[in-house]
Amino acid sequence: MSLAAFGVRPPESEAKHLYGVVLDMPVPGGLDTLAAYEGRSARYLNFSGAALIWDHPDNSLDGETQGLLAAGRELLARIGPWEGPRPPVPPGQARISLLTPSGLHFGQAAPRLLSGDEMAAPVLQAATKLMQALIARSAA
Questions:
Q1: Distance between CA 26 and CA 91 in Å, rounded?
Q2: pLDDT tens, residue by residue, 23-53
Q3: Of 79, 94, 104, 117, which one's alpha carbon is 20 to 30 angstroms from that of 86?
């Protein structure tokens, strides 16, 4: 639940401030989740229960984290907040969630549709780069 449910609205100048981007991607057996936050931390949660946590111990993933946030800002400028309770992610669909003071903004569709969408594709591409960098960093 957000403050908007109680009638609290942020100032217009802050309404679309992006705190983070969360991508839920369907995989056989569940959902993988990747998140990047404005403090340059990141999380990758595998459907199996495995997790990679990046709490920004150094600047080595700043480019990838900032890339996902930048792509999220571009999408945020083009979509409005979701009204009402957030529904579960439907089976077989991916969801891009944008965390803002004005509430949750999100888009969802089958991954192949999102990857072909001019607004969503840059977010998916940036998320893939961040996920690959997180995995490579954890293997090092």
A1: 7
A2: 999 999 999 999 999 999 999 999 999 999 9
A3: 117
The letter for the amino acid at 88 is P
> Where do we find the tokens 């609290």?
8
Which of helix, strand or coil describes residue 70? helix
Q: Identify the helix (H) or strand (E) that includes residue 58.
A: none
CA dist list (Å): 13 to 4, 8, 9, 84, 101:
16, 15, 11, 23, 10
Token pair 């009638």 is found at: 7
- Each domain of the chain, given as residue ranges in start order, spans 13-139
Structure-token pair, residue 95: 């969801």
